[in-house]
Design a protein that fits this description.
Elements: H1 2-16, H2 20-27, E1 36-43, E2 47-53, E3 57-63, H3 72-85, E4 96-102, E5 105-111, E6 116-117, H4 118-124, H5 131-150, E7 163-166, E8 169-172, H6 178-183, H7 208-213, H8 226-242, H9 252-261, H10 274-283, H11 294-303, H12 316-324
Antiparallel strand pairs: 1-2, 2-3, 3-5, 4-5, 6-7, 7-8
The protein binds adenosine-5'-triphosphate (ATP).
Length: 325
């Protein structure tokens, strides 16, 4: 009798709901007219981000789509990447809310990140991160990235510009969108780079195998992998600790030549313990197989000796206690 019962439920369910596939795509399809767009937050290589509203505050990334190009290929890729995006639920990843998928309106809607990016903290405000704070930030990045990789998603563009810090909590953005966004040529900013289309501040995140595969206008076919994400994490770790990019001030050709040959940024002048430098060197390994994965990085970071572990008097726990008494 139980099986008859559930059978009846299933057919009722089928009648009310379309097949799973079409349902799951439609669910994330936000009609463009429902979005309210406010001020522009910024323009990146592939899209412009607006502060917006859709059942509350959101960030809307409008992709630059070349009006004259054939949309069919980008749309398929876009849909594929949106399908990837909606599989993500993790504290340290930006919340995906939906997408507008009607060309020429292609947009990604996510939660609005408060706080600033690590890039802003490190390179614009010149905020100093202590070793302890860097470790805490790096742990959260490893946690978010470990989750992405476990779900089979490669970030492809991990960098301090794509990592927000909200009251000490790391929020990673922009994952998995690299290839679709690269499809949307015709944005003027790419012309600012050189003939390889290298935007400033991108190169130092690229693993040797990516650097060696660079060709003009062929970034779509770069061999991104979990291990190239780990290499990029190494660069973020370096920025946290040193407050600047590796190979600072060097022209792209010099960086390409060195990284491609396996020359790393020297750590001789860096004030840090052996363990901390070891993490960098492992992430930046020339051979991708020698780079650690994120779960391994996380446990290494957790084992690092912490300085001044005692709670400071301004710790919230103390505050609430004294308020009670
Ligand atoms: P690139 O195109 O090279 O990745 P970028 O990271 O600056 O450069 P975008 O990712 O397009 O470019 O972001 C544009 C601006 O919008 C940046 O200032 C970014 O910090 C901001 N931004 C992106 N996503 C969000 C979000 N979810 N909440 C708040 N601000 C965001």
């Amino acid at each position: 009798s139980g099986s008859t019962d559930s059978g009846r439920h299933d057919s009722a369910h089928d009648a009310r709901w379309p097949r799973q596939n079409s349902l799951t795509m439609k669910e994330w399809d936000i009609p463009y007219d429902e979005l309210k767009l406010f001020e522009k937050i910024g323009t990146g290589r592939f899209g412009t981000v607006y502060r917006g509203s859709w059942h509350g505050a959101v960030a809307v990334k409008l992709l630059h789509v070349n009006a004259l190009s054939d949309h069919s290929v980008p749309l398929d890729t876009f849909k594929h990447e949106v399908a990837t995006f909606r599989k993500t639920r993790h504290e340290n990843l930006v919340l995906f809310m939906g997408a507008c998928m009607k060309p020429p309106r292609l947009a990604i809607v996510t939660s609005l990140c408060k706080g600033m990016t690590l890039y802003t903290h490190i390179h614009l405000r010149k905020d100093k991160f202590t070793a302890n704070k860097s470790v805490i930030v790096a742990q959260q990045i490893s946690q978010g990235m470990g989750y992405l990789h476990a779900r089979g998603i490669i970030h492809k563009d991990l960098k301090t510009k794509n990592i927000f810090l909200e009251n000490g909590k790391v929020v990673i953005t922009d994952f998995g969108l690299f290839s679709v966004t690269k499809l949307c040529f015709g944005n003027k900013r790419s012309a600012r780079g050189d003939s390889l289309g290298i935007p400033p501040g991108w190169l130092c995140y690229l693993a040797p195998e990516l650097v060696r595969a660079l060709r003009p206008h062929a970034s779509l076919h770069l061999p991104f992998s979990k291990t190239t994400d780990v290499y990029a994490f190494g660069t973020v770790w370096y920025e946290l600790l040193c407050g600047e990019y590796p190979f600072k001030g060097q022209p792209p050709e010099a960086i390409i030549w060195q990284v491609g040959k396996g020359v790393k940024q020297s750590l001789a002048n860096m004030q840090a313990s052996r363990d901390i430098k070891d993490i960098l060197m492992l992430c930046w390994s020339y051979r991708s197989t020698e780079r650690p994965d994120f779960p391994h990085l996380l446990s290494t970071l957790e084992k690092l000796p912490r300085k001044r572990l005692a709670r400071s008097p301004s710790h919230p726990v103390h505050l609430s206690r004294s308020a009670d008494s």
